[in-house]
Structures are given as C-alpha cells and as structure tokens.
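User: Round two. Same drill as before: sequence, then structure, for each protein.

Assistant: Same drill it is. First protein:
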Amino acid sequence: MLAMTTVVIPAHNESQVIRRLLGQLAPATNSADFDIIVVANGCKDNTAALAAACGSSIRVLSIPTASKHAAITAADAVTADFPRVYVDADVELTAADVDALVSALSQPGVLAAAPERVLDLTGRPWPVRWYYDVWNRLPEARCALWGRGVIAVNDAGQSRIAELPPLLGDDLAVSLLFAPPEQVIAAGARVRIHTPRTVGDLLRRKARSATGIDQLRYNEKLPSVRRTTLADLAAIAGAERRMIPRVALFLAIGMLARLTARRYVARADYSTWLRDESSRG
C-alpha cells in the first residue's frame, strides 16, 4: 500500500485566504495519495464552510479552541498517514510543492523539510521592503525551517513535534528540534509569503516573534535560540553601500518590536497573537 501524504491546515478566522490556498492545492484533492485536513479552530467567521466548499474530498474539522497547537493535535488524532505537511492558511503552496517536500524527506537521515521562501512585497511601503531586504539576507533566515509557514515531516519528525507544549513561536520551536543534518530546504518547493502591508503590522508581527523567543528560553528541551548579531548585520551593510540605511532601519524596527514585546513578557502573556491582518487583505 502506498503512503498517503497528509496536509494539515490549521485555520483561525481565515475566511479571506483559505480558498486561495486550497485552490492551489486542488489538484491534490483528487488524488488518492493526498489527504487534506483543514482544522477551523475557534473561528467566528465562515472559514469552515468556505473550506468545505472547495471540494468534497477535503476534510474539515471544527474545534472551539483558538489554538494552532490544538488544531494540529486534533488533525493528528484522525490520521495515521505519513509524511505529514503542516501548512499555515495564509501562505500559498501548490500540489507540486508538496510533492517536492515529500521527495526531500526521502533523503537518508532527513526528518523535516521546508520549502524555499518567496516574499510577496508588491505594493508594500518602502520601510517594509527595506526591512525584508535585510531579513532575507540573514544566515538563519536563509537556511532555517522557521518563517516559511510550511513544514513537512515523516513519522520520526512528527513524534518530536508532538512533544512540544503550546508555544507562541511554534515554527521556531519546531526548527530547533532538528539538527542540521536532519532538516533540509527542499529544492523545487516554493512557498509564497504575504508580507505586512503597513509598518504597524510589521511591528506587530515582529513583536510577536520577540515575545515567542522569550517564551522559548524557558523550555529546557530546546537548544538556545541563535539571535541576529551585529556581526551579521555589519556583513550585510559592508557587502553593498545601499544596504547601510536598510540595516539601520532593520535595527530600529527590531528595537521597537522588543520594547512592545516587553509588555507581554512582563505579564507572561504568551497567548496574545498580535496578528498581522493587512497581509490577509
């Protein structure tokens, strides 16, 4: 019996984008080798109905709790098939990209795979474009699994993910679970990431990231998080003169985001999502 690929999509109030993703995965829904599960978690909109309308072969689960962790747990409880691909509802991924991820998992010793990242910066204001011009050149951003909204795992990889508690920075935590030889960025797989359309939404997204990093410091099972260093930024600024003001902006936004994160960290608030709504427009 051939292995079936299970695609799990946690979706919390994603009515604006769920059809965009499922429309690109549509060829997979007609294949006996794919099982697509959308978990509408704590939704107050019609995410579940829109997902169900995308095809009778798409399984839609609804749970009352607004939690990505709870959504993944609910999906894992109703499937035993591997490999498994976890996909954020607000990204764009095709069936061909899923196939490329599955192929990458066949490499010896590889437990987790992620796609190459394509940042959609169309129509974004210059501070957002400058910020990501620097961010996309950081060593960790180029090679780590986090910040892509997609991760594919085999059964051994999923068993590690299942041991994680609910975390704000879940994608970073998952990335830290795997040593470099156990993870790969899959050639031929692409994910389109929709960046914030406003500077305010960029700050919210980065404040959430900073808050999540602080929470991970208290998890003894995870290795320490490698932070961006001044040496990293100096190397980027030194490579091209035009990058100098961009690096300065990157530092300023990072400082403002950490100041915002301090308010949440001070009261141990690791559940407020600080969601960027502009990229879902």
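Second protein:
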Amino acid sequence: MFVALGVCLFREAGLFTGGTTGVAFLAHYLLGYPLGAVLFVINLPFYVFGWRRLGHIFTFKTFVAVGLLSAYVELLPQWIGFEHLNPLFAAVMAGLLAGTGILILIRHGASLGGVTIMAIYFQKTRGWRAGNVQMAVDFVILLTAFAVADAHKALLSLLGALALNVVIGVNHRTDRYYGV
C-alpha cells in the first residue's frame, strides 16, 4: 500500500520512477496501457530468475506483492483523489513512500520484482549494496524521462528516485534484519 500510494502520487503529478515500474510508466504514458497491468506483465520474466537464484518462497512472496501493487495502483484512484498536488512534494513523498514499502518487503524476504530482484541478488552474491544497484539502474531508466517529458518533470522524477533509493541504501544492509 505504501508503494502503491507512492506510484499514484508519481502518476497524478505526471512523473516517472525507476525500475520495472518506470518501464511500466513509459508504456502507460506513451501507449495508454493500464499501469497496473503493464507492471504485472513486465515482471513476469524476473520470476524465473528469482525462482532459480533467490528461491521459491522469495519468488512467491514477490509475485503476490507485485500482484497486489498492480491491483492497488488501479484501485487507489477510486478511493482517493487530489484536488491539488505540488509536483515537488509528490516526487519526494512518493519516493519516500515507495522506498519504505520496498524496504519492508526486502526485510521480509520479498520484493517488487524486476530491478529489486537483481539488486538483492547482487547484494547477496557480490556484496553490492541493494540501494546502489537500484539507483544505478533507475538512473538509466529515468534518463528516458527526458525524452518523454519536459525537463522539469524529468528532474523531479530523478529527485523522487533519489528519495526512494536513499531510504533503501541507508537502511538495507546485509548485517541488518532480513526475515524470511
């Protein structure tokens, strides 16, 4: 629900984010596809990798989390609305909400698929900080926002991704709690 609210804030402000959600945003904005459905479909190939490298329990939890996120992203606009939403506030708050939600999932042996699966894998196998991996990939995905949106929205999207990844980077380390 944290992440879904963050994604809805990004969407309401016309912003982007990174990861597979960022790719789903591109398809949503450019092609008009429903964001939740695209998000679910884009993550399908990552489940195979997750099943093989991170285990079936992690992958099942991730599948459920992505399924719920996909549903909530479509349902939340029916439950809440914004008469006024400052894009700067939306970028920062959406990033903080999404980062917190992702951190909760990681600490309980799940993710939101895609890039996060890869970030957790690299943290476990190579010692790379998950937040750093996520931020690097998000940066590349968010560069496309400059081709699709105006520079102001693209920069705000980068700020949102930074907020998201700072939450993960500061709080997720291998020597901290990692539940299963």
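The mean pLDDT is 87.

User: Perfect.
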